[in-house]
Amino acid sequence: MMAALEEARRAEERDEVPAGAVVVGPDGSIVGRGGNCCVSLNDPTAHAEIMALRRAGGILGNYRLVGCQVYTTLEPCPMCLMAMIHARIERVVFGAPEPRWGAAGSLMDLAGLPGMNHRIRVEPGPLTEDCQTLIQGFFRRRRGTEVAVTGATRNRLVG
Fold it and tell me: What does each C-alpha distance from 136 to 28, 117, 133, 143 come to in angstroms?
């Protein structure tokens, strides 16, 4: 989880929402890292978990990441959790719950839907307070400067 937090801090340095994720391979080594890149890449799918999954797939040479685990600083959204299910991730551990978008129990529980052809273990994890502090601080700072921003820049910040 510490490596995921480092990825989140790097995302924040790029003015991205500070979320970070790592994929740990069956041997216990990190095979994929990612931080949010939606704004910098102009890509709504460039969430931390997706970036980490893409890199892991490239390193392992397979889109199926059987036996891998994902550690992420923020509870995955529906897109990210479904990508993990499609990749056959064994387990996802997340830091901060996400009541507005969380698909691992907060808003909805996609992992628990009946009829899924793969089951992923979901665990709220360690460093919850650190993960929450990072993301809450980011949005507090953003709200503090949002009033002075207009036009396209404002859309980039809040969109």
Answer: 30, 35, 5, 11
pTM over 0.85: yes
Q: Phi first, then psi: what are they for 62, rounded to 5°?
A: -160, 140
Clarify whether 49 is annotated catalytic. yes
**Amino acid identity at 86:** H
Sign of CA dihedral 71, 74, 79, 82: positive
Catalytic residue, from 7, 49, 75, 98: name it.
49
Rounded CA-CA distance 144/154 in Å is 13
Task: Show pLDDT as tens, one digit a residue, over the chain (159 residues).
Answer: 999 999 999 999 999 999 999 999 999 999 999 999 999 999 999 999 999 999 999 999 999 999 999 999 999 999 999 999 999 999 999 999 999 999 998 899 999 999 888 999 999 988 999 999 999 999 888 888 544 444 444 344 444
| Pair of tokens at residue 96 | 């901060």
Give residue 46's identity as a one-letter amino acid code.
A
Residues contacting 76, CB < 8 A, separation 6+: 49, 70, 84, 92, 94, 98, 102, 103, 104
Helix, strand, coil fractions of the chain, as percent rounded to 5:
45, 20, 40
